[in-house]
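The protein record passed on below.

***
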Amino acid sequence: MTAKKTTSSRRRAVAPLAPEEEFFNRELSWLSFNERVLQEAEDKRVPLIERMRFLGIFSNNLDEFFRVRVAALQRIDALGTRTSTTLGFGVSETLDSVSERVIEMQVRYNQAFEDLEGQLSGEGIDILTEAALDEDQALFVQGYFDQAVRPHLVPILISDVGVPELKDGLVYLTIALKGDVSKRARYALLELPDHLDRFLELPEKNGRKGLMFLDDVVRAGLPRLFATFQPEAVSAYAIKVTRDAEIDMDDDLSKSLLEKMKKGIARRKHGDYVRFLFDREMPEDLLKFLVRKLGVVEQANIIPGGRYHNRRDLMDFPDLGRPDLVFKKLQPLPHRHLANRRSILDQVAKRDILLHYPYHGFSQLVDMLREAAIDPKVTAIRINLYRVAKNSHIINALTSAALNGKDVQVVIELQARFDERNNINVTRELQEVGIQVIFGVAGLKTHSKLMLITRKEGRSLRQYAHVGTGNFNEATSGVFSDLSLLTADRRIASEVERLFQFFEHNYQRGVYRHLIVSPYSTRRRFSQMIDREIKEALAGRRAWMVLKCNNLTDAGMIRKLYEASQAGVEVTLLVRGTCALRAGVTGLSDHIQAYSVVGRFLEHARVVAFGAGGEPEFYISSADWMTRNLDRRIEVSTPIYDPSLQAEISAMLEAQIKDNVKRRRIDKKQRNKYVKSGQDERPQEAHKVIYAFYERQLKDKG
């Protein structure tokens, strides 16, 4: 990395600041991140169908935000006393601000959807409602409804029996029957079957493609579904609730952790309502009826929406045979040192290797594990899992290893939010083939990304280690941008082994001179490195650091970055998501530049780089700079010692810092302004620059 030379500067004493002067509200910063996703849906440079998919990502993000963050704030606010967030913002005021911002963004979102509908129509793709079908299309939809949809519908006359508890995140159609019908049949409720495809492709006609939401397929069939009441008209309006996703675990020590998790997941289904989303066209009397019957009392979270909910399904919007309307496929590349090589372990023995997904194929990591599973010289495999794919290739390889007589141990985190059920199933699958499963460290989530392969070579044992920034999950590796260090360096591998010993015997914490481990040393070690940069700046020498992470919200580390800025250290931040630091504030953060790159890939890799007095140091990490990652989780950062790998990381960071297509400046008001190219500057989009970098590497391998 390069950085501008800084002038000598004295540290300035800063008077205590109000929270809004020192920090940006964490919840509003998260909404600012989701606005960047919405910007991608609005960006005319993005292919049309991909823009629809970004609307789905926006919706999915917002659902999780309400299930987790808003739910937590509402629990605190319900205590009835004046409370504040960890950064000092009033909880009640934050909830009000969140509601105002969400409603504002919902309007913008609905407009984006309508705009995209019109543009798709211009491309010969029509999103049709039941009222827009011609005779042939209506017959096709009727046949599909009768054969594939109607058998799964369970209508409930809610004007008679009341409204049942609604499931989190599912779409319901509330139905109003008009005409001479009894009061008992005035309103009805239908749960939209979530196991059916959300979109129905209609037969092409006159060169145009038609597409229907499942919601409208059901609407088309409602008159026949309720024909027994002979209504004059049937109208349907979508609703959706979001429920508190917190899992409460009881303290009954006689129960196993697996049993506690199962009961906790079951209780989650009955969590408090934290958001009620409804079609703004719904009649007022029906809305009041639903709100009263459901007991939704927080007016702030009763949010008007459009005709369709659960638009997270737009993430799977079909490509309809139009490659010109989706991203050009980027074929994952083989690593230059692994291409056409018989043994990955042999290559790792020769040199450290850095895999960068999705530019490099994740299959290479799976192949290394498969190789170890059948290699007669491999004696043991250790791995820790946080999230894995369903029907995981990683799990298959571990199963193969166990059946081939290897000593396999898996540390699995049962409390990975929203993956708990899958991790319980994975645990059973592993235990059935005799694999030892450990549930981490009591009181600490295990979020590290570690693997250790032990191999007998000659008369000694050699260890091959993996330290990464992302999960062992091939299903997300094509979208999540992450880094994996593969190394046989004894300095790293021996300390990875020490960590696995700690997972098994929690009283053996061990000493780590190379790895940086939360909750024991991450805050202290990185603070010391920042202090070193401060000393360099105060001595008038070049001082800089780059932090790339998903979230930056820890007050202590933010204040340390402010201290560095005030000393003259040039700090560059690449924060994809939430950033509570206020960059560019005179006297507080003059020397801090904060950016966010949101585009085709989800930037997930955590990287920290320091000038270190002219001998730059680079670290990759599983940890964001959030209090939970620093103090309440097992997280691991590893130094990158190989100069060639340092150069690769430096090139990746430079590509993002110079991006003038997808980079936004996170200023003190978080206005998400794009950093645009000048008249004489060609567009540089980071993911294209990085892919081209690895393509050149592959051609010039050696």
User: Anything to note?
Assistant: The chain has three domains: 48-325, 344-511, 517-699. Confidence is low (pLDDT under 50) at residues 2-14, 247-255, 264-268.
